[in-house]
Specification:
Low-confidence stretches: none
CATH topology of the largest domain: D-amino Acid Aminotransferase, Chain A, domain 1
Number of domains: 2
Largest sheet: 6 strands, antiparallel
Mean pLDDT: 94
CATH superfamily of the largest domain: ATP-grasp fold, B domain
CATH architecture of the largest domain: 2-Layer Sandwich
Structural class: alpha+beta
Shape: globular
Length: 243
């Protein structure tokens, strides 16, 4: 889609090989991938007003071309329940980013301010990701997400493109599939909604082969019939200067 191409072009013009979070969410929205409500703000007062409009609680994250891993820079504050929480979080995020810059010897660009997102209820945490192999091309990964992906490594892969049948087979290969089906009194999760996310991500990558890495982690999957939400997203793109 034109929206993704436009965003990737702007990123490259800034010398970036990744898109900022609001850009990633703009792309996902264009592909019909469900995401929480979001906005951006460059000042603390704007952050407060947009948080009020969105409805508390909210999440604030640093928005800077110089910071890829926001948590490492102390750039994430969650479950902010009122105006005072947002004001305090905004100030702390900016201070942390400046400190991070000094420690790394970087001049951090803070002009974009913060990314604001609705703080949504937790669902079953799943990761939907993409990697690009020089020989085989793009592959989609799905598995238990959040902090568990590194520990348990319960994941399944398929080359892109793939079908709905492939997506369902991927999920059935996971040890965590029992969780999705419902276990220990928990009802089944919305597997259909998760499959839709996987297929939309596949289409996104097919139409934008310059994507070399993508993580939708966590993707919250709710009870059957209640959908799924991609809560956090990261997209890396090729550096054309190296190709």
């Amino acid at each position: 889609m034109k929206e993704a191409k436009k965003i990737f072009k702007a990123a490259r013009e800034e010398g970036r090989t990744f898109v900022l979070e609001h850009e990633a969410k703009d792309i996902m929205k264009a592909y019909g991938i469900p995401i929480p409500a979001y906005a951006t703000a460059t000042t603390v007062e704007e952050a407060i007003e947009k948080s009020k409009s969105m409805g508390f609680p909210v999440v604030l994250k640093i928005l800077s071309k110089d910071i890829l891993h926001k948590s490492d820079a102390g750039g994430v504050k969650i479950n902010l329940k009122n105006e005072d929480d947002v004001r305090k979080a905004f100030d702390e995020i900016m201070k942390n980013a400046k400190k991070y810059g000094k420690e790394k010897g970087l001049e951090i660009d803070l002009s974009r301010g913060v990314f604001i997102s609705d703080f949504v209820d937790m669902g079953t945490e799943i990761i939907v990701g993409v990697t690009k192999d020089p020989q085989f091309g793009h592959a989609l990964m799905a598995g238990l997400g959040g902090i568990f992906v590194e520990v348990l490594k319960d994941v399944s892969f398929r080359l892109i493109p793939f079908s709905e049948t492939d997506a369902r087979e991927m999920l059935s290969e996971l040890k965590a599939y029992k969780i999705l089906e419902g276990v220990r009194g928990e009802g089944p999760r919305d597997i259909d909604a998760l499959v839709e996310v996987m297929l939309a991500v596949s289409k996104m990558v097919e139409e934008n082969p310059e994507i070399i890495e993508l993580d939708c982690n966590p993707t919250f999957v709710y009870e059957k019939g209640k959908g799924a939400l991609v809560v956090d997203a990261r997209i890396l793109i090729e550096n054309l200067n190296e190709t």
